[in-house]
Amino acid sequence: MNILFDYVLFHFRQVYHLPADLEISYGLNGQSRLQIIPTTSSFFERQQAQPVQVFWKEWQGTNMPLFFNEATYQPWFTQNAQGQVIVPYDIIASAFYLLSGWQEYYGKDRDQFGRFPFKASYQARHRFITKPLVNYYFDILREAVEVAYGQKIEAKLWAGKPFATCLTYDVDYCQTAWKVAGKPALQKGNIKLFLQLYLKHLKGQDAWFNLPQVEQELQALNAKGTFFFLPEKALYQGHPNADYDVASPKIQAEIKRLKSAGHEIALHGGHGSGNKARQLRQEQEKIGQPVQGNRFHYLRFDPVKSLEVLEEAGLQYDSSLGFPERFGFRNSYCHPFRLFDFKNRRLSSVWELPLNLMDITLNHPNYLQLKPEEVMPALTPMLQEIEKFHGVFTLLWHNENFTPYALPQGLELFREITQYVQKRGTHFLKAQEAVQFHS
């Protein structure tokens, strides 16, 4: 159980300014200022995917699930005559269960792309995908520390700003607007649009070769972005990878231009790379620039194999962990965190920058199918949670969705979302900067 405690405590220390002599014990030792009573459940020894039952208890107006405690009406914590604070609920075990991705590693459910599906998750079953519950558990711990030490515990901010925002872009397509958007237009009798897109393509200016436009949007926000380039071009089991050659002079010029402008270049691991270290390393080399981060194409993070692949590739961080079907908090946490190595039962070297929202989630036929006017009302509660806990909002917007030929009103939605967080006082950071900020 010390492994659980060490993993959770590491992350608790990342988000708060805590006393240098912090005394927390996972168990009643009669000495530490803060003592948490561990569960007697054998759940983690049995390696089941999901707890059998959930006990709900209110914390400051929010109903909180506890996965390893029996129903009881004790307060969240009490202080004894010696000034020691006792927490009778094992919030450590609940936090570890969610943050580590335990249900994904031991769960057997997978979709057609080998991903752990949202519908199989506890987040779906109990409807807390837009609540960063681990941050709530940490908030309980924070207040318990305040009582134990008699001092205010402040959250770590982002250069004085209340929360951070990472604007990230998966560059999948640069050459095929004429085909993907043009041919359907031709079939509908819109010959003018087809010819417009086709002629642009012939001139080497495909409508989706638009990274300068993306950069202009970043300049308007006074922000720098992270661009994930996809080095694999060949089809994989019938599924598309990039429509461009990352080694071509044209793409290499774009990569160098973006980097010289202060943007981050990262790797977009192709289909199949999530469980093949050699493939990911080869793709990494094709970028032609040193990269520190990765996001798998189609978010194909393999809960069992991908961590080892990322470590072998020597990557500092990944940003694949978001459910494509829903926006929110896949690991119930709104800060960067270190992935847990189940195989070796340790804190891994790889950080995860949680992905909160992907553009395609909003209107894909298999996903939410929101109308443009429904987007901000739906997203605002999630964004408020991130601001409340001084976390990071990670947004994925594909470059083709800055044009009128992909996501309906994609550019307008991007502006609406980013202007909202800008007005709320966010600190725009590149992905690698966000990972390093509190580490």
From TrEMBL:
Domain DUF7033 residues, every copy: 87-174
- CDD domains for this protein: CE4_u7
**Descriptive protein name:** Polysaccharide deacetylase family protein
Which InterPro entries did the record assign?
Answer: DUF7033 (IPR054297), Glyco_hydro/deAcase_b/a-brl (IPR011330)
Q: Which residues form a coiled coil?
A: none
